[in-house]
Specification:
The structure is a single chain. Helices cover 68% and strands 11% of the residues. It is an alpha+beta fold. It has 2 domains: 199 residues, Alpha-lytic protease prodomain-like; 86 residues, Alpha-Beta Plaits. The chain has a 4-stranded mixed β-sheet, with helices on one face. Helix 1 runs antiparallel to helix 2, helix 1 packs antiparallel against helix 4 and helix 3 packs antiparallel against helix 6. The chain is elongated and about 85 Å long. The two termini are 42 Å apart. Pfam families: Cation_efflux, ZT_dimer. It is found in: Cell membrane. Keywords: Cell membrane, Membrane, Transmembrane, Transmembrane helix, Transport.
Length: 295
Amino acid sequence: MTQSLRIAMGSVGVSILVLALKYLAYLLTGSIALYSDALESLVNVATAVSAVVALRVSAKPADAAHPYGYAKAEYFSAVVVGVLIVVAALTIFREVYTGWFEKTTLNAAPAGLAVNAAAGVINLVWWAVLMREGRRARSPALIADGRHLLTDVLSSAGVLVGVFLAVATGWEKLDLILAALVAVNILWSGWSVLRESVGGLMDHAVPEETLGLIRRRIAAEATGAIEAHDLRTRQAGRMIFVDFHLVVPGEMPVCEAHAICDRIEDALEAEVSDILVNIHVEPEAKAKQQGIPVL
């Protein structure tokens, strides 16, 4: 079992614990805002389960049906998360609309607020764990889970303050307004997750920092070649795919050109994990006098 999968499975347990605490806080206070906070945690449970499934699928080795592997499964997980976030937000809006025309009674029970605060602290700690592992493993599923968790932490903090103020001022509609604001925040989080997931499914290029590293390694390791051009990259989950044309002298033997390609591939694999390199060798007549000059 990989480290990322262990973290994802841990998220399931953490999210269930937090959901239970937040729902208890709602029962103790009767706050619609705290109910909306608990509902967001229900999405966290679904998100964590989705991440576990996606990581299991994406870890499968390439086969005849999927020669480039299953890494993109993580993007589908992130899309599911985004949709669930939107559903949660719409459910909260419905509760706000219903509650606006009904008499509600708030009870700022210290125990209820303390339980909700404890759930927020747990989420904050686990957010740090998810983001660290997600960035290390380049996992869209873990990063999507972590970003939604941070949204949950921020909205929980705002809700706690708002519920206290609603009771202190006697203006109970403030509780509903806060619930609506939580829903708006959740919608924004869902849109961000969906946008990035669609970008991954559309084969977006690697970040500029990674692209610069790839270009430098090609320039340094292609001794004997003339230039490299038409460099293209795409990222699919943790996998990075790179292809380019390498121009060599026309009289160079195939075995020497192949040795240069091997040297470049080895250097890139040493610098960037989970990378697949494809090099098309061309004679010097194909040189474009642009791209990556060989050092």
